[in-house]
Amino acid sequence: MNYRFADRMRKTPRSFIRETLKVTEHPDIISFAGGLPNPSVFPVQELAKTAEEVIREDGPAALQYATTEGFLPLRNWIAERYAHRYGISVTPDEILITHGSQQCLDLIGKIFIDKGTHIGIERPGYLGAIQAFSLYEPAFVPISLEMDGPALDDLQNFLQIKNCGFFYGVPNSQNPSGITWSDEKRRAVADSLHDNKGIFIEDDAYGEIRFRGDIPRPVKTMVPDQVVMNGSFSKIITPGMRMGWICAPKPIMDQLVTAKQGTDLHSSILAQRIIYRYLSEYPIDAYIKRISDTYKCQCDSMVRSIQEHFPESVSYTIPEGGMFLWVTLPENISSMEVFARALKEKVAVLPGIPFYTDGGGFNTLRLNFTNSSHEKIEDGIIRLSRVLNRLLEKSER
Amino acid sequence: MNYRFADRMRKTPRSFIRETLKVTEHPDIISFAGGLPNPSVFPVQELAKTAEEVIREDGPAALQYATTEGFLPLRNWIAERYAHRYGISVTPDEILITHGSQQCLDLIGKIFIDKGTHIGIERPGYLGAIQAFSLYEPAFVPISLEMDGPALDDLQNFLQIKNCGFFYGVPNSQNPSGITWSDEKRRAVADSLHDNKGIFIEDDAYGEIRFRGDIPRPVKTMVPDQVVMNGSFSKIITPGMRMGWICAPKPIMDQLVTAKQGTDLHSSILAQRIIYRYLSEYPIDAYIKRISDTYKCQCDSMVRSIQEHFPESVSYTIPEGGMFLWVTLPENISSMEVFARALKEKVAVLPGIPFYTDGGGFNTLRLNFTNSSHEKIEDGIIRLSRVLNRLLEKSER
Predict the structure, then answer these.
(1) With contacts defined as CB-CB under 8 Å, which chain A residues touch B47?
(2) Domain that residue A323 falls in
(3) Is the ipTM of this complex over 0.90?
(4) How far is CA A239 from each of CA A216, A355, B54, B60, rounded to the nearest angstrom?
(5) Taxonomically, which superkingdom (chains A, B) (predicted)?
(6) A352-375, pLDDT tens digit by residue?
(7) How far is A67 from chain B (nearest CA, A)?
(8) B143 and B254 in one domain?
């Protein structure tokens, strides 16, 4: 049989990460390539008890079909959390529970993108978003990501494109770069959105995992009608249940609910009730602090080892939160060659190329610090330094 | 703010059912309008125990990110079930776990439908499929559903359209009609698919809930390379966890996995492990028999009441399984008027109109029998008969 598939399937990148991770899964290999939260901090016993209680006490209500919008007490909890943490004022009507933050991106693509709609995305940008949006065949417009946030000229030019859909970004501890936008940049982005009537998709998957600096002010607080905000329980509880949410102004929410209904009717009501009960019965702030403290130590170990061992011509970000840091090599060093050589030394890194929608990123790497012990972090960075030193020597010859 | 949405959002029907069900939720109302499985048979205690054991014993593996394809032991279980029940021979590589059967439809739409692709669908057809596919902007081609399956002329004409994507149907206890395709029709459909190199989406959400007649042979057994089969745990365990699966030939599966990854990364690994452990530790066949026996009694109550009370000019289907039967009124009687008048008598029915992609269905009703007691079924049918008799008298005057 010859099968004929939709055009969009030709435009969607097969996941480079997926293929890469396959070769890095061997237990001998120290992997900085993946992006998993640290399972040692998962609240296993608490969730086991909570799941049992939810099913036994809530009975059929935890197992039957449920509303598309999601479990109201959980949506209330999210609205209150936004008010308390960020000073964002929204009603539960503006919140939809999704199957993970990735589904937010799919639904946003579905309601906003026609074939050829121009979409602004940070350069480098989050790969999950590139994959989700690609399925709706947009024209990506890269907005350079500077150390304090998006390049304002790029953003301004993008927002003046006639067929302009939205700008997507991750202001807090971005994946892949680890960069957090400055308050000044947020204000300037909000002004630009306001002047050009633009829409911003503010992905806040890492906003709660923050171990340095103040809590930054979301763009949502500045131009609330023009911002859709995504959140996730993956980083603050666990990812395996696939629970996230979208917060959007009501006219956008109406379209999201229609799209969600066609997509999978509703999110698991069992998972929603387990998470709500867990949030109600256990001190979530203390748990998030424990995760953040753990990641801070791991991040600090990696930064310290890099400072000590990497060649001076290599630069890197020092994240304020999240799970990744970003390495920029001298321009003539190929991250693909680093990847291949590092693998021989049994250390896995992720070349930055797939995070660029316009090519580029040739000399960049993403390193994950949340899934290796301090010893492995130091050992891995030392091995990687050997690879980098050898490549630099060769390139200088 | 004026928001601009993608074209597809204008083409997607707001759920008529959704709006309808809102007015029928009052506890005073006897509702045949919905489509919920009977919660009295949910294995609540078993699932409570299983969920606790899975999280406690599997630990982080039940809570971490997981593979897009799904939990291998569960995919093995499905492959073995197909072999045993239907004589279908597939490997776990041909099975993808989804967030409910509705997500199968979304992923199928995503990989096969370009704007304007012609899609064949039964007339009347499953509303969830109409909604899911509409988001990809196909041209629907209705294939008349006769009492023994799709009209072969319609199918043949459809398969000869140049820009023809796939034919979607529900051969076992269809929603909304309750019709099960005959073996002869299945054979003829397979021959037509074979001759025209067509693709068939065989939705088998109700295949296990069967209370009359032999197990019919899936079209998948006849032209395996040309059939994608959807299944669901919603009707045989519970729907709230949103667990279903797609079974497709490998080249189609590759595209589905790419689409699934962009859509929500993977299905809840916790739900997959709960379902797998439940299937391993409890006698699922006995449980499915209990559900089927319960539904048979409810179906028989409804058919008996209809035979006794409905005017003779009203015809109806007698299902072999599933959750619905289908009523056809005399041509000049409006189901919308029946709906409005029945609601005043505190009984809710679902007009058949939204199940038609080309208009029509003016004089049809879908009745659900799984969610009312025998007393309520009889009482509701008597009230409905009064409405029908009054409307018929009026129309004869």
Answers:
(1) 55, 63
(2) 8-42+286-396
(3) yes
(4) 24, 22, 16, 10
(5) Archaea
(6) 999 999 989 999 999 999 999 999
(7) 9
(8) yes
